[in-house]
Design goal:
3 strands, hpI Integrase, Chain A, mainly alpha, 52% helix, three-stranded antiparallel sheet
Length: 251
């Protein structure tokens, strides 16, 4: 009733909304993420993956690219499977520099722009060359972001992508356990990790690097973009610049 009276112009505000605001509880801190030290263990394990055969080299390149997307792009595992390389595009900023972006169709059919940093584009080019593709994707190219081993160009399922991620975390956890019992707690934490931990890790590490939290929010798509934000190209360019400078994978 009070909401209707506000809409009708009879009341300036809804007094019951104040009681609802008081009842809200602060959300707990994110705990399911990898510390920088634990993330380094994962990168080290990936770097040491076997590369003797063509299949091993292709699998290594795929894993490295997948974790690049999860960490630098903050993509959900479903977003990795449902988006294509044709969603990368180039846009010139106010200084005349070409910057790459990845347009992600995400949760709830919402779209967001993810800065495709210089590191991400280098990893994309390396992965594409490993698959015998041109270094850069063409506009509207329907190649999946991550491909199966072999000649198939079909997208991997969410379950298949999840299985790859879990195998990496499990392998890195076993490598930690092999170094002694003192590493067991960290290995157990790594064993529990999932693809979504990478998304939380990106947000946490960017915040630790003092990247503006509004930029982190936009990178992860936590808030839907308003119509006005489509015209804030200067903010987009600053977000790209700070993401490129302060958020790195450092293989």
């Amino acid at each position: 009733m009070f909401a209707w009276l506000v809409q009708a112009g009879y009341l300036a505000g809804n007094p019951l909304s104040l009681s609802r605001q008081r009842a809200r509880r602060a959300k707990p801190r994110i705990t399911r993420y990898l510390s920088p030290e634990l993330w380094l263990e994962v990168k080290t394990w990936i770097h040491a993956m076997p590369k003797e055969t063509d299949r091993e080299r292709e699998h290594y390149a795929r894993v490295r690219w997948l974790f690049t997307l999860l960490y630098l792009g903050g993509l959900r595992i479903t977003e990795v499977g449902e988006n294509t390389m044709g969603r990368f595009f180039r846009r010139r900023d106010a200084n005349g520099e070409d910057r790459w972006w990845l347009e992600v169709l995400g949760k709830g059919g919402k779209e967001r722009l993810v800065p495709a940093t210089s590191e991400m584009m280098a990893e994309l080019s390396a992965y594409r060359r490993e698959r015998g593709l041109p270094a850069l994707p063409s506009q509207d190219e329907d190649t999946p972001l991550v491909l199966p081993i072999g000649q198939s160009l079909k997208p991997l399922t969410r379950a298949a992508l999840h299985r790859i991620v879990k195998q990496v975390f499990s392998g890195a956890a076993d490598a930690l356990r092999d170094r002694g019992e003192t590493h067991a707690p960290r290995a157990d934490q790594l064993q529990q990790a999932s693809a979504h931990w990478m998304r939380h890790s990106e947000g946490s590490h960017m915040a630790d690097q003092q990247v503006d939290l509004r930029l982190v929010r936009d990178n992860l798509g936590h808030a839907s973009l308003t119509t006005t934000s489509q015209y804030l190209h200067d903010d987009d360019d600053r977000r790209h610049r700070e993401t490129d400078e302060k958020h790195r994978i450092d293989w």
